[in-house]
Amino acid sequence: MKVTFCTDLDKSVVVANCEKRGWVQVGPEDDWLIAKKEDGYKSLFSVDSGYRMNDNQIINHFPNHYEISRKDLLVKNIKRYRRDLEKEVTFVLPADYNMFVEEYRKAPQSTWIMKPCGRSQGSGIFLINKLSKLKRWSRESKNPFQPQLSKESYVISRYIENPLLIGGKKFDLRLYVLVTSFRPLKAYQFKHGFCRFCTVKYDSSVAELDNMYVHLTNVSVQKHGSEYNALHGGKMSVQNLRLYLESTRGKAVTETLFDQISWLITHSLKAVAPVIATDRHCFECYGYDIIIDNKLKPWLIEVNASPSLTSTTANDRILKHKLLDNILSIIIPPCGYPDVRWNKIPSREAMRDFDLLIDEDLIHLQEEMETGDKYTVKQTMYRWNRYALFNCCRISCLPNKLKPNLAERCVLEL
Amino acid sequence: MDEIKDKGIHHTAIKICEDLQPSPAYVGLYKEIQKLVSSQHVKYDDFKDSLTKAIKDNGIECQLRNNIYHWVRVKNTESVTGHVFFKKAQVHWDKRIHKSLNSMCNELGIDLAKLRSTAERNDLMEKWSEMSNYDVDVSKYRPVYAPKDFLEVLLNLKDPSFVHKDGEPEWEFSFLPLEVKDLEDLRALYTEFSRGEQILGTGLVGSQAALEEERIILGEKVLTKNYAPVAQEYLKRGCPRSLRAKMWSLVLGVGGKYTQQEYFHNLKNHVLQYDLMIDKLVIKDIQLTASNDDQYFVFEDVLYQIMLCFSRDGTIIKNLKNQPGYMQVILKGKQPTAENTITFPPSGVIPFHGFTIFLFEVTVSLNSKSIDNIAEAVSFPLFLFALTWTRRSTSAVVIRIIIQIYKKAKANFIKKWYSGHRDSRIGNGGTVTQCHQ
């Protein structure tokens, strides 16, 4: 039987990767086995469509991935995940306006960033440092503080005013994470990724507050700047970042930072896992945006369910081609044919440049094997951490005594 | 006999003292000892012994030793006699480069050196930390030469006294006689190369991570000793990335000391004061290479600062074994007096296409945030020496790096390179018998 694929995204990296495997492209009306869709998938999952996927069909989205990719819902889910939250730094406007004002008054000097919940690529984002500015904004937009009438809600969070700068410029990290299942959670982190640099030197002064070339790292924003260089596109590989940090800050702290990033990702997925309508036909690749502050602490900025597959530079194309190739390698069972009855445990070789972040199936397997475990800890949460630690090959090369500490710290800091 | 020896030591000590006194490190050292003398560790009735002990206990002895180590290193570079043939080749090359510099100036109607106007100076000063925004039209400038031009010149060097023996293989581009008769002599001549120590991480069995961890632990011990020769020995076998900045600084005797910051500021002032044609070449080179590269672009602004200051650093030309050629240029529109004449280029180094790229390791390893660290990086050629030892690499790569140094410093290392090159050939087997013939 031939593998067929269907895509509504006419990107060469997608088509080339599928065709390389001898798959045949078909239209949405035909019988497809693997779908890569950006717009059409919503109707596919709706009840009225009458479409039911068979056991050999898989698709690159979960029905309600917006739980993680929409900024407000991610906030909501993470909040629920850590109920014992002591300090709140992100609010959904207009719903949380009063809470925000209370928080704002505690530190009136700080800067806040406003982002529309459903938009992407840096559009509609602005910074504020005065409550009056927010009020003016609310007057100008039509029905600001009546949620039922307002068209667009915003998240407002404390702006990270001390980002790590390299060469005086701000950057964020774009990392890729593949999720093949949410319950049990199965997630893989792509080894490669890149830093997106601002083209203009960072300056936290009020005068530069409106200069988005200083503050926003999105390529879609930066490429309009006069300093944009199309050859490197302001992108530096994560490997180079690691080298730089190892050289200037030392090896141990660099390792800790990257471990914390892996934890951050795992926790964010864990936070949404209960509400995602899991479906064995689905897999999804997320683009994680992370900012590192000058104390080398990672901050999750947002998660994109449809990370851009457009290549701005040659290296970009190589990376995205590899990403697609490795995703396909993980989601296809060893038989080479999509099958939802497969246990979704790929071999080490099939993972290629992905690292296992967490696979709860494997954790349970290991748990069953280790009867009479002398380390048993009552809290499920902690147990999960501990097992994840031992399962993630990237972390297990740390000296043993470090591990429990690391786990605790990550839980607290999220 | 002992008496003569004692006298010899005494004389050396006097010589070292004389040389150290004007050095920038001396002031700091002297101050620290003065502080120590006034502390309670030093006793009046047992002055000499208690002072010696206090110096030892407070790590000043180590500083003193490091200073002497750096003194010896500089001394060594002074007493080398060059081969006449190479000297000639070098002079020829220098002339060629200077000629093309001059003709480019004529063609573009510019001057090799002139004073910057106040407005220009202010503009440059304002954009000093963000030189990528410094507007200067360099579109008409072109790199004076590319590495490949230089390699071509090297490959065509033919020593008139070189005789090709029958039965010797054609080595394609080596027309220079070996200085040694056999392998034993060769080993004796290049003891550093023949120690047979493997650079760590090449062809080793076992885990790389474990090796690195072990190496870091050892390296940290070395750093706590704070003694340059030990660090140098450590570097010879490879240094983990995270310790390179500290190790290099220790070996080269640089660091964010006050005197060095001052030194750096003097270089910077020189840049602000004089508009040299070479600045444009530097800017052009960075624009052609680093600005467009996805590894380097982040460090672009730092590279401008380092490269411009480096171009003004006169100690470089002073410390090179074989003096490279330089020009004496009179500032535009000035009287030809001594104060209006400057050495061009001040550092003796004319950047070639891709010169900037060699700075990468330095910019990545040193935290570029603070100005004193940029000052550290100014002793760049010395860093390159360190690089040849720190790269975990096969001999081929070492040779490549040596060639790079060679290109940079022009004919200064010609002897070493050729011999080094042959050395590796011999190391590869095959040609060993040739040496015995």
Automatic annotation (TrEMBL), chain A:
Subcellular location(s) per record: Cytoplasm, Cytoskeleton, Cilium basal body
UniProt KW keywords: ATP-binding, Cell projection, Cilium, Cytoplasm, Cytoskeleton, Ligase, Microtubule, Nucleotide-binding
InterPro entries reported in the protein's UniProt record: TTL/TTLL_fam
Gene Ontology cellular-component annotations: ciliary basal body; microtubule
Domain of life: Eukaryota
Database matches in SUPFAM superfamilies: Glutathione synthetase ATP-binding domain-like
Catalytic activity: (L-glutamyl)(n)-gamma-L-glutamyl-L-glutamyl-[protein] + L-glutamate + ATP = (L-glutamyl)(n+1)-gamma-L-glutamyl-L-glutamyl-[protein] + ADP + phosphate + H(+)
Biological process per Gene Ontology, one example term: microtubule cytoskeleton organization
Family matches, as Gene3D superfamilies: ATP-grasp fold, B domain
Family membership noted in the UniProt record: Belongs to the tubulin polyglutamylase family.
Subunit structure: Part of the neuronal tubulin polyglutamylase complex which contains TPGS1, TPGS2, TTLL1, LRRC49 and NICN1. Interacts with PCM1, CSTPP1 and LRRC49.
Name this polypeptide is given: Polyglutamylase complex subunit TTLL1
Native source organism of the sequence: Popillia japonica
UniProtKB/TrEMBL annotation, chain B:
UniProt xrefs under InterPro entries: TBC1D19 (IPR042507)
Name listed for the protein in its UniProt record: TBC1 domain family member 19
Native organism: Popillia japonica (Japanese beetle)
Upper classification of the organism: Eukaryota, Metazoa, Ecdysozoa, Arthropoda, Hexapoda
